[in-house]
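Design a sequence for this backbone.
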């Protein structure tokens, strides 16, 4: 799944971009893991901007059977060599300036690991560096630092591969501790679970992990409210979680926030299934169905040990850390807020939005939110969602006026919006979708499949946006302000003109015509009041065409 939720990372479009003279370095980063081999080719600027050119991956499972034999098996080696040969060819064809290839726990632990590296060198020309566990943890942290705001307070970054678990503890953006343990998804699945996983085996797995974590992670240092997680175990977890809450349409898993309770529920559900049954679970790839439970059980124990309430998933990891190190870019904390604002504005500008109208509707919507949002049941974070939806609500004009609200939904849903979680992006798309036309109904697939709390958020914010957009029906910014008075049986919204003598008739009509959803959400009638005190309601406008 192609993603971009990093203020310094964008996806290439239209093939390989030309190198920028004396600026960007084109780097190929290959991570030879216990389960998969992944390559990212990207142009990296001196400031740390990463432009992905191409990616390739395969899953030869070098770590399979390693615990019992101590050796990389020949079939896995042959598959790995074929994969690496293709990756070397791709790097050559795309004019890579620097190739960085690393191997992790499987090659590190195998008795024939050095022999494998010699064969890689002979058959592909690639020189491979074996990473120690602490190196993996450091690179994972470096990647997380580029994506998330880790610049203040304590943070824990967790990466689970096929063979090992890596943990990094930081304080104010600086690494304090790095820990590596042999608790990878393949390793733990083979050791404890097997094909006929019994509940007592799961108890043994978790007890072993729990005891070792208790020994290695001092509670006074490692307790944090959330853990930032990378690796295939977590991208699979995020995909399953998004499917569970009706977010299959999410463009990326990056930034997905998963409550710890949901993690435990998913572990328990998958453990009670056969491998064949897991292959039908939405969001879980068949190739990972036999090892996912072992990885997630380890993650659940880590979350319990550090007392984290939630996990935040990164779609990136070691390879991005390699890219940054290869280009000798100094690590610095991301600013997701600034990146998000810039990204939303860029989408608006790319679709040639009507800036004066959109920004004015945004202003009016936020005025309403500040006055009535809390009473409607909104939370502070909803304000940013409303702000983004208001700015983007009319970008569907870029395709066609007809059904432009639905076009806005699809443009937002499929956009690369940095610093925005998948759930937030779906909410913003739906709020924009319902700024006009039919009100949200459960029979509508884009809305009805979502979990109840998300639907409620969409409904509340759409109710506000509809009225705010109505108050600028003439696209003339004639209404400068909306004064709010919540009475016992009515919500009274009084328009304040932006200039003396401004004609507000069209805007008052627009607001009353779109006030029905707000009335439903508020539980009282909505009265639209003109400067002279006359009142209009939705009931007055029933049957009038929009």
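Sequence:
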């Amino acid at each position: 799944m192609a993603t971009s939720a990093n203020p310094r990372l964008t996806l290439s479009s239209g093939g390989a971009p030309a190198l920028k003279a004396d600026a960007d370095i084109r780097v190929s980063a290959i991570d030879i893991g216990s389960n998969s081999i992944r390559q990212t080719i990207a142009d990296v600027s001196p400031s740390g901007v990463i432009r992905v050119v191409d990616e390739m991956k395969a899953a030869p499972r070098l770590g399979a059977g390693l615990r019992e034999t101590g050796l990389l098996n020949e079939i896995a080696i042959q598959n790995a060599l074929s994969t690496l040969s293709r990756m070397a060819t791709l790097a050559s064809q795309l004019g890579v300036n620097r190739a960085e290839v690393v191997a992790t726990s499987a090659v590190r632990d195998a008795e024939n690991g050095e022999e494998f590296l010699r064969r890689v060198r002979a058959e592909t020309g690639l020189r491979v560096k074996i990473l120690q566990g602490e190196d993996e943890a450091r690179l994972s942290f470096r990647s997380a630092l580029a994506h998330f705001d880790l610049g203040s307070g304590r943070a824990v970054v967790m990466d689970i591969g096929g063979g090992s678990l890596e943990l990094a503890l930081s304080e104010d953006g600086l690494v304090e501790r790095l820990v590596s343990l042999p608790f990878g998804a393949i390793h733990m699945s083979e050791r404890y679970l097997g094909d006929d996983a019994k509940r007592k085996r799961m108890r043994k797995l978790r007890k072993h992990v729990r005891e070792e974590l208790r020994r290695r992670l001092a509670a006074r240092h490692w307790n944090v409210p959330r853990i930032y997680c990378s690796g295939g175990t977590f991208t699979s977890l995020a995909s399953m979680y998004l499917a569970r809450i009706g977010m299959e349409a999410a463009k990326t898993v990056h930034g997905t926030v998963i409550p710890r309770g949901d993690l435990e529920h998913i572990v328990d559900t998958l453990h009670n299934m056969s491998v064949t049954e897991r292959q039908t679970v939405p969001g879980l790839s068949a190739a990972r169905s036999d090892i996912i439970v072992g990885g997630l059980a380890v993650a659940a124990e880590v979350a319990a040990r550090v007392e984290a309430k939630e996990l935040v998933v990164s779609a990136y990891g070691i390879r991005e850390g390699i890219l940054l190190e290869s280009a000798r870019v100094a690590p610095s904390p991301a600013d997701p807020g600034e990146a998000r604002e810039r990204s939303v504005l860029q989408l608006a500008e790319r679709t040639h939005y009507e800036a004066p109208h959109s920004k004015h509707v945004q202003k009016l919507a936020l005025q309403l939110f500040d006055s009535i949002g809390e009473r409607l049941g909104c939370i502070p974070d909803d304000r940013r969602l409303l702000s983004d939806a208001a700015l983007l609500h009319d970008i569907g004009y870029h395709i066609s006026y007809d059904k432009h609200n639905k076009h806005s939904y699809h443009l937002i849903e499929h956009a690369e919006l940095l610093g925005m979680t998948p759930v937030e992006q779906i909410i913003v798309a739906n709020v924009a979708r319902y700024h006009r036309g039919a009100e949200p109904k459960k029979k509508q697939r884009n809305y009805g499949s979502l979990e109840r709390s998300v639907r409620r958020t969409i409904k509340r914010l759409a109710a506000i946006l509809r009225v705010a957009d109505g108050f600028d029906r003439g696209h003339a910014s004639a209404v400068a302000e909306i004064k709010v008075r919540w009475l016992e049986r009515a919500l009274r919204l009084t328009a304040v003109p932006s200039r003396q003598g401004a004609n507000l008739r069209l805007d008052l009509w627009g607001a009353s015509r779109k006030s029905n959803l707000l009335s439903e959400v508020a539980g009282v009638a909505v009265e639209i009041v003109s400067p002279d005190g006359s009142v209009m309601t939705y009931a007055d406008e029933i049957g009038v065409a929009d």
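Residues 355-376 form the longest helix (22 residues).
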